[in-house]
Amino acid sequence: MRPESLFPLFAPIATLKGVGARVGPLLERLAGPRVRDVLFLLPQDLIVRRVSKVASLVDGGVQTLGVTIDFHQPPARSGLPWRIRVFDDTGFLALTFFKGYGAHLAERHPPGVRRIVSGKAELDRLGNGFQIVHPDYLVAEARAADIPALEAVYPAVAGLPSRMIRRFAAEAMGRAPELPEWQDGAWIAKAGWPSWREAISRAHRPAGVQDLDPQSPARRRLAYDELLAHQLALGERKRTQKRLVAPVISKSVRVQDAKAALPFPLTGAQQRALSEILSDLASGERMTRLLQGDVGAGKTVVALLAMLAAAEAGWQSALMAPTEILARQHFDTVAPALAAQGVRAVLLTGRHKGAARAERLAALADGEALVAIGTHALFQEGVTFKGLALSVIDEQHRFGVSDRLKLQAKGGAVHMLAMSATPIPRTLELTVFGDLDVSRLDEKPPGRQAVATRAAPMGRLDEVIARLDSALRDGAQAFWICPLVAESETADLAAAESRHRELALRFGDRVGLVHGQLGPAEKDSVMARFVAGEVAILVATTVVEVGVDVPSATIMVIEQAERFGLAQLHQLRGRVGRGARASSCVLLYDPPLSEAASRRLDVLRRTDDGFEIAERDLELRGGGDPLGLAQSGFPAYRLADPLAHRDLISVAADDARLILARDPEFSSPRGQALLILRALFDWRPDGPIGWSG
Question: Residue 419 is part of a domain; what is its CATH number?
Answer without folding.
Answer: 3.40.50.300
